[in-house]
Amino acid sequence: MKIFCRYFVLLLACTSLHLPHLAHAQSDPDEAFDPFSDYSEFDEASDEEADLNFFKNGRFFTLGIAAGLRGFTDNFAKNYGQGATYGFLITYFFDLRTAFTLGYLIGDHAVNFGTNLDTYTGTVSITMIPMDLKYYFNTQNVTKGLADLNPYLLFGFTQYYRKYSISKVDGLTGDSTMGLDLGAGMEFPIMKKRSFIGIQGAYHLVNFADEGKDFLQGTEKLNNRLSGDIYDFLVILGWNF
To answer: Residue 21 — pLDDT band, cuts 50, 70, 90?
Structure first.
């Protein structure tokens, strides 16, 4: 009987030694970890908020028709007359602040070349294909009446195609070049923000192949050496999508 009691006490003591370890194993946080509990499609709450704001208030792209005035600087202003330009612009929005614009603008200008022997008149046709990035400023914190305005800056490049039609000068062929664009604009929403009226001004740094040329047709010296850049002011009527 004594041996049985000693064995029972020893068994009870061993069991009591293991109980804390069992309790600790049951409360191990690793066993309760769910790898999917913290999953989120967005890295931060701000990313989700920005995307929701874009889908609610943003524009995916706009289509606009443009018309305005195109002019020239330096000696180009002495040889080329100011004239109308018109075309269309398509803008794709990456988010509420940045967008990419692709356009097509054409226009004809009067030409007057004076040389040491004669004066030549005609027209020059210039086609522009602008490819610009736009950055729109945040106006949410300004006066309520100005909050709906959409001012922006633009920067990019334009492909130019030029062709002369000048009296008494035969054999002229067209040429092309690439130029740098710098500009700014503003858009005014209309028709419950489904459309807008915009104004835009841009300066185009351009270098045609005949800039710095002294002679016309190889023998007649020009009174004004060809040089200068292009600028334009546009009014844009657009639709938001």
So the answer is: very low
Query: Between vectors from CA 228 to CA 225 and to CA 229, what angle results, nearest 5°?
Result: 160
Joined together, the tokens standing for residue 6 give: 């000693």
Q: What does the alpha-carbon distance between residue 70 and residue 50 come to, in Å, rounded to a whole number?
A: 38
Take residue 47 and report the two structure tokens written for it. Answer: 């990313």
DSSP class of 222: B
Q: In degrees to the nearest 10, what's the CA dihedral of 25, 31, 33, 34?
A: -160
Concatenated DSSP letters of 91-153: EEESSSSEEEEEEEEEEEEEEEEEBSS-EEEEEEEEEEEEEEEEEEPP-TTS-GGGTT-EEEE
**CA-to-CA distance for 98 and 46, rounded, in angstroms?**
18
80 vs 162: CA distance, rounded Å: 12
Q: How far is the C-alpha of 239 from the C-alpha of 165, rounded, in Å? A: 36
Write out pLDDT tens, residues 96-108.
889 999 999 999 9
Q: What is the torsional sign of CA 98, 99, 100, 103? A: negative
Q: Measuring CA to CA, which residue among 76, 101, 111, 78 is closest to residue 181? A: 101
Asked if residues 238 and 56 have their Cβ atoms less than 8 Å apart, the reply is no
The mean pLDDT of 227-235, rounded to a whole number, is 96
What is the separation of C-alpha 180 from the centre of its chain, rounded to a whole number of angstroms?
14
